[in-house]
Amino acid sequence: MQPLLPDDAQLLDRLGSDDPHAFEEIYRRYWQRLYDFAYTKTRDTDAAEEIVQALFVVLWEKRVSLQVGNLQSYLFTAVRNRIIDHFKEKAFTALDDVDSPSEPDYPLFLDELEQAMQQAVGQLPEKTRRIFVLNRFEGNTVRQIASLLRMPERTVEYHITQALRTLKKLLKDFILPVAAILVSGKF
Amino acid sequence: MNKRHFHQLLTRYRSGECTEREARLVDQWFALIDVDAEDLAGATSELTEARLWNAIRSRSGLDTKIVLKTTEMPMAESKPLHFFIKWRWAAAVVLMLAAFGGYQWVSRQNGRPGKLAAGETLANLVAKTNSTAAPMWVLLPDGSRVSLQPQSTIEYPTDFQSDKREIYLKGKAFFEVARDERKPFLVYTGEVTTKVLGTSFWVNRTEADKAVEVSVVTGKVSVFQKDKEKEARAGNLTGGVVLGRNQRVKYTPDTKQFTAVLVKTPIADEVYKNAFVFDDARLSTVAQTLEQAYGIDIVLANERLKNCLFTADINSQPLFTQLALIAASVNATYSIKGTKIFLDGKGCR
Questions:
Q1: I need a labelling partner for B281 at 20 to 30 A (CA). Which of A88, A158, B63, B193 fits?
Q2: Predicted confidence band at A75 (pLDDT cuts at 50, 70, 90)?
Q3: Which residues form the FecR protein domain (chain B) (predicted)?
């Protein structure tokens, strides 16, 4: 830790009083992690760049009125919202026809989606499933899970990777058509 | 898989008006869409960092705001008002330099008469090179400002005494030109001269291919071969082009060709920032709004397209996404030809 670097709270303060250097420092500090996150989800470098750009432009626009307790969680929530918006737009752009009467209705769609995800997760080996649910659905970090289950972090990471890989196969008839259509572009 | 329902689900989620179950489904879906670690492009680098940062700065109009903010206080106290207006840009640059600290200025007071155009008085030329990694603002004697990009050099007289303002550029720069109709503002880049008829624009000259690129942010510029200035002044622009907002030109020395096209990311006029909300609006109106906002011609190739209705809030999208959304909703396609955008489709009754 370098004592000379301002912490996030100080940066937020200075940003609120119009300090462009604080803005730049926030950018330097966070852009890479935000970009990686956006890329991991979208698999699209253009989309990831646009998401990060727009996020910072808005951060500067709102600097004075911004009410933020924790800069890091604010940024990651913002980038997550933008990623979801990206998929929303893609789904909208991909809409081909206005009337397709054969579509099941919306509640049914939710049932199907839920079922597909539950079934897929249910098919994971028990230990892998437990770790995956703790991490992905309940938001625990790798470190938290490692100490909870008394196992090395590397093992936790291994199970998560395995789970994602298996799920991708299991859900390819359901989730992946969505993800593939929505995500593609590069593939 | 149902795109419409999926879109509906995400829309409800983002508007905060969804059930707990819907929220959970989206959260779970979001958790499942990661790519494997080995798929990661690792395409991130210092270049990406710098490019994103430049885009963010220019999109948020940051530079202008910094300059105004940092200078108003001290200057207002120490100078009479008419001085304040004239000097605030100069002071701003000094403050910015002090703040960043690391800039190296290469400054020469000796003129380089060999480079001066015929008829120019023997004014002293100043050369500035940006050897840092960040863009650098340079203030010209007439109050114009130049954002000089890394590894770029400009030269200009210490005082614009002649009947024109002449600047020599190597590399890439963004210009905000002070209005002075009596003294045309000319930028020389290799074989190409850019003459400003309006306010702000980019000039980019890559050393490798000697090609020159000019793009216009606001106002108008004309671009022509260096030795054709007389013709250009007489209004004869054979071989050159006049560029408007959101247009750029590429000059290829081999063929001496100027090609006008649209910039990669057109920017809407500030006034139209929130104008892109349509509720059963006729396509002719939608197209007109876009035309005015971006200063780009939009042609409806089929008369019947005018009758189509469009409903959406597309404020936060860039132009080409806006066009894709509009086209998709009226079953049309859009294409770009030169500096114009064409929408084509069957249309509506």
A1: A88
A2: very high
A3: 138-221
